[in-house]
Amino acid sequence: MSEDRPTNPLIATKLHVPSARRNLVARPRLLASLEGASDARLVLVSAPAGFGKTTLVAAWLRGLADDGAAVAWVSLDERDDDPAPFWTYVLAALDAAVPGLGANVREQLEHTPTEAMLAMLVNELHGLDRDVVVVLDDFHVIDHPDIHEAVTHLVDHLPERVHVVLTSRADPPLPLARLRARGELVEIRAADLRFTADEAAAYLNDAMGLALAADDIATLDARTEGWIAALQLAALSMQGRDDVGSFIAGFAGDDRYIVDYLAGEVLHRQPEPVRRFLLHTSVLDRLHGSLCDAVTGASDGKTTLEALDRENLFVIPLDDRREWYRYHHLFADVLRARLHDEDPDAPSELHRRASAWFAAHDDPMNAVRHAAAAGDFDRAAELAELALPALRRNRQDAAIRAWEALIPESVVRVRPALAVAFVGAAMSTGAFDRAEERLRDIEQWLTLTPAAQAAAGMVVADDAQLRALPGAIEMYRAALALVGGDTAATVDHAQRVLAVAPDDDELGRAAAHALLGLAAWSEGDLERAFDEYTHGIAGMRRIGHIADILGMSIAMADIRVAQGRLRDAQRLYEQGLQLVAEHGAGPLRGSADMHVGLAEIFRERDDRDAAAAELQRAQELELFGTRQYPYRSRAVRAGLLLAEGDTEGCLALLEEAERLYDTDFSPAVRPIGARRARTHVLQGDLASARAWVRERNLSTDDELRYATEFEHITLTIIRIHERTNERELHEVSTMLDRLLAAAEAGGRGSSVIEILAVQALAFDARGDTSRALDALRRALELAEPEGYARVFDYLGPRLRTLRDAIATGSTPRRASQPGLVDPLSDRELDVLRLLRSDLSGPEIARELIVSLNTMRTHTKSIYTKLGVNNRREAVRRADELGL
């Protein structure tokens, strides 16, 4: 790090293990307690401020480092209470501890981490050949539930050689009881951390050289109850005093009064320049010589910090070069309170100077924060507005939202460019409340003449953002309409964007085309949707937004798949990956989705090895996935398990996919619930399938829409397998006719193939074998050119029988079952047919696409109905009965 320039956005000093303190008291009893951490997933050091939590952990880690362990340290603060910065620092710390570990993940971290990202991280940790300790110092500043959940997930899945250490002023909301019961938790608490009488004596007499009598030490220890910070303040206050005994007898009271009193004593004994330096720099979270000079107006910041460090005056070095420091948190709180009491007007000016320093050193985050702390909200707003383009480019919506909490609404209201950015940042996190109301307020500025705008107090820091404002307002309205399901309004507002956005606003215009594509796609107009996305990608190419191109390519490939054009979809994915390679900056957001898309196409063609290979590549890049990646990758993997006959594994993955379901504005045209219902049908679990129908309130009389087409096809599959009567089968056939006509009119080739196959089952169930074979032949003719093979997976073994009949030119017949009181079901007949073969039980299960347990259940039922005890007897009895 340079002498006077902080690293941005990462603050390197937050990753530094605190250096050994001068006059440190050895604490072997606590270090011995930490030796058990080698068997623990989590080490929790929990105690109030000033109990030496960080000092203890740092001392312990130095011993581990000598034994070859790697240490990843993060000093947390309130600004890390957001998943993006939190995990950015954790991954950076791991990379610093073990070069390369998590580095690729950190470099592209843009969104809230998912379980998929944590799985990738855990997999990397499993490959380590050394112990790694991850320390999250001051974890009490973290309140975000997503972080708590993710840390819990990480702790639960840590390999043996990796341990997490938390220092905190309060117990975190993690499953401590469970970890404690399993012997996976080591705890150090305030009662453990308090100085014993011997430790207090060692500190006061040996470390601080006070030569106190035993009675005085006992009095101090009793008054402070072994509280280290209070003892340290007392020691500093007593240095050079002649009336030590009187001083010791002179203070009492609760913790707050002890600290205030002792800190006051410490300050009172400092030379006036040092005292002034301490008070004025207390407004800073981190101290640097140049920064301190800017705040104090002096020129000796570096030497003063070094002197404070030598004197152990509650200054903690944050790097090995001792360029960056911070005050002990407790001491800083006292200093700030004292500064406010002595000079209430001073903090504002000091924060203002700090803001100017950070602005000059390209750190807008801290510049805005200090300007707001100074009460200079106009300056904070100006700095924020000027920083918006860079933050938007890097998708730092969380940072923009944090600024909204700092800057009063009255200030934002007269800055329309900043106000619309705050609306967009809120919407990006799913907060749509008051969005339209705020957009209307912003729009009022556009109705005024420039003179009227100036008279009304409108402020603009960036003219380019003001020119883009009309388009931005319409863009967010289009997005609101899409979320609300109003595609007509989405189209209206998106077209207005194209009408009002400046010609050079390529990003806004491209996004408008994408919204038009989404609206057309939602209505089932696939070709128009594809054309709009094509225009959008052209705009993104002109400004080099490769990640956005990948996102649009995913949508375009989905559209081609819906049209039954697998080859075109494959080309789009391959072109996306080629574009990333040509870009030359490594994987980008959406790279993982390209491989998942290819895996789905290979799975559909029954090329399972190729599909598995693409999923492996996707997993290696999973942090570079869109919001759709977690559910889509699981859905594709579930399809592979289904092809292997593992319906139970398929259902488990589909349940995960449903929990993570997020189409990211794309229409939810293939919901996971419908796929689960189809899998239940294959299992013979019609009760669960019926429950899904009731939950979705589906009927064969429903009005047809593209959005529910997949669900209605699923309904017909369930009805056919329910052995419905002729009237109900007629209703199913009528719905299939309607579905087929709609899909053909909309050019949805994939649906056409599937509907024809289901029609074959419906005709077969009604005894019309000829029409059943005709429908299936047409489906196979449409499927063959694009390589479709697994589209019939969910339709059961009877369809395979019909397909075999077409291949062999034979006529499929249902076996009669004379002599059986309890006839065999269709599924049991399929199992019986394969019992005659040389296939093993697991091979039969895979052939029928059922789990081994399900196959065994069917086999047991067959034996019972046939009155036999084994496979050989079952085959013999079937021959006797003509089955």
Question: How many strand elements?
Answer: 8
Number of helices: 47
Helix content class: 55-70%
Strand content: under 5%
What's the gyration radius in Å? 34 Å
- Describe the global form: globular
Q: Separation of termini? A: 82 Å
- Side-by-side strand order of the widest sheet: 2-3-4-1-5
The biggest beta sheet, please? 5 strands, parallel
Low-confidence stretches: 1-8
Structural class: mainly alpha
Query: Mean pLDDT, nearest integer?
Result: 86
What does this molecule look like?
It is a single chain. This protein is mainly alpha-helical and 883 residues long. Helix content is 64%, strand content 4%. It contains 47 helices and eight strands. β7 and β8 form a beta hairpin. The longest helix is centred in the last third of the chain and has 20 residues, at 726-745. It is globular and about 115 Å long. The termini are far apart. 47% of the residues are buried.
